[in-house]
Amino acid sequence: MKVLISAVGDTDPIRNFHDGALVHIARKYRPEKIIIVFSERTISKKDDIEKVIHSIDSEYLPEIVCHEPIILNEDVFVFDTMYDQFDAIIQEYYTKDDDFILNLSSATPQVKSALFVINRLSEINVKAVQVSSPENDSNAGVGHDDSEDIDALIDTNLDNKQDYIDRTIEDTSEKFKQGLMKKTLRDFITKYDYKASLEVANQLSDFPGLKECRKKLQDIVDSLDRQAVPQVLQKKKWSEEQKKVLNAYLTIDLQKERGNFSEGLIRIKNLTEFILEDYIENRYPGFLDNYANDSEKYYIGIWDYSKILKEKHEWNQYKKIKPVINVNSTRNTVAHKLDPLDSEDLKQLGPVLKTLKGLVKEQYQLTEKDFNFYKDLNKELLELLK
Fewer CB atoms < 10 Å away: N or C end of the chain? Predict the structure, then answer.
């Protein structure tokens, strides 16, 4: 069943010898049910509107429902109030089995805007329709016919014929939709959610900057999925160890920015072990191979590196990794026991990342600017979306 939901405006039911928006939509779509939302000022039009609708065709007899309660006069000029009220009205009548039509051309600008936004933002399946004026121009200066006899208006209505000119426009609001999607894309980028950003970007119609934005997002998503180094970092004239270690740190920091603290904790130990292995191997070549053979270990962990540093009197390095060692029990709880983190655990992440960052900067000769990779990327992406 087709159902039309409509407010009432100054052009309803007839103005300047033509249908008002409400009647014109009814004429075009012939809904079996029409739900009319009146305000205190427009309720006086109730009988005239019903009479004009029935004049469309002797065989067209829709069910006309006057929604209650009627809207207060002072409310029709408040967008937020109209949005809430019409959203509730639509939800009250909406069913998946019916085809719903919204009239976007009747009532105050606030009502029309509310219906427009509801149509674009709601997940319900409705057809929204606008009606252009007979002159395809503003109705300003066109007289009202409220005082005229309704039968006379019906008789002189130029739309009341078989070959009337269809003035309905089905609302697709492509620009609004694209603008909303672009805002969503920007929001995802600022939250460092690059996979969601890419999904939205791929749905957008092309505009200057979008192709480059997609390319950058695709590279980051692919890199994060494979734990690979992004193309921008690959092009740096650095050693492979520098690229690999910085990328590993940036991935941990990215998890923190996203609020994924548990994933960050799990990765911290692995990166610290890699850094310490590299550090000891460079300072004491061959030592780790002998250590592994002597202790019959297949895997040298952070506790082993801690013991080695003490054995080698590397007190400065030992002190630097203490925060990482202290947080390791929390890391193991997350990684192996599936227990949740508490607030005290989360407080440790900041100091540990600071420690880790210091180790990376010192050992791999990186600058503070190198650690701003994702912040700089976001600035570039947002600039492309302007």
Answer: C
Q: Where are the beta strands (DSSP E) in the chain?
A: 2-7, 14-15, 18-19, 33-37, 63-66, 99-103, 126-131, 168-170
Least confident of 93-97, 134-138, 287-291: 134-138
| C-alpha pair distances (Å), 43 with each of 25, 27, 156 | 20, 21, 24
Whether the ω angle into residue 13 lies within 30 degrees of 0, i.e. cis, is: yes
Name the residue with higher pLDDT: 216 or 203.
216
Q: What residues contact residue 292 under an 8 Å CB cut-off, 6+ apart?
A: 298, 300
Mean pLDDT of 296-303: 77
Cβ atoms < 10 Å from Cβ of 289: 10
Closest by alpha carbon to 198, among 211, 207, 208?
Answer: 211
Structure tokens that stand for 299 in this block: 């895997």
- The residue behind tokens 């004009």 is 52
Q: What is the DSSP letter of 169?
A: E
SS3 of residue 378 by DSSP: helix
**Averaged pLDDT score across all residues of the chain:** 87
Give the CA angle between residues 114, 115, 121 to the nearest 5°: 85
| DSSP helix/strand/coil, 30 | coil
Q: Which residues pair with residue 72 across a beta bridge? A: none
In DSSP terms, 34 is beta-bridged to 4, 64
Q: How confident is the model at residue 329 (pLDDT cuts 50, 70, 90)?
A: low
The secondary structure element, H or E, covering residue 175 is: helix 174-190
Least confident of 87-96, 114-123, 224-233, 246-255: 114-123
Distance CA 186, CA 56 (A): 48
